[in-house]
């Protein structure tokens, strides 16, 4: 189990509570932003859309993965509208079928759907996370800053370009390892608190985002000392 020292566990717990990424989605019918009190409620709304039998709701869910993920980026509207304009009904049907049977990290399988704006690890991992936040997490460019921090972490074993994290077998394996680690940290250090793997990742993300990447690297490095041995899809 990935048990942290008391100091690092408390630091991570505080970071999870401090996570402040905007809890917003968009109502495309009313052209109005929707704010959610908690990430749990936002997650539930997105999951309901993504697993709907109605292709229009699936489209809404995918568009809102982008809307949420680009919340602090000025070109958010352009990316969302590009998706909504270019995605086809056939892609939406195949996506819904894939979502219902997806196992493991699934980044390569999701990429093969060819969904507009979902071609690299950052947003494919956001999509995977919203399909099952208990087991899966986000891996984006901000977290990849940890690849250059000491002490060394699993991020150092992955590859990235200047603008993105490509979907490769090595990076999918690294993503699955990151998911496992977040699950294990939550279970080992916060028993009984109903933390999702995504909550642990958000705490690490918040530390990086607030200028404390070295401290985030210390937490990840400490957690990596014990290797979880089962796949993320097999954990409860």
Keywords:
236 residues; 53% helix; two-stranded antiparallel ribbon; mainly alpha; 10 helices
Largest sheet: 2 strands, antiparallel
Strand order of the largest sheet: 1-2
Number of helices: 10
- Share of residues in strands: under 5%
- The figure for the number of domains is 2
Q: How far apart, in Å, are the first and last alpha carbons?
A: 15 Å
Q: Could you estimate the helical fraction of the residues in percent?
A: 40-55%
Record field, number of beta strands: 2
Oligomer kind: single chain
The sequence of SSEs as H and E is HEEHHHHHHHHH
Q: Nearest-angstrom radius of gyration?
A: 17 Å
Tell the overall outline.
globular
SSE-based structural type: mainly alpha
Uncertain residue segments: none
Q: What do the pLDDT scores average to?
A: 95
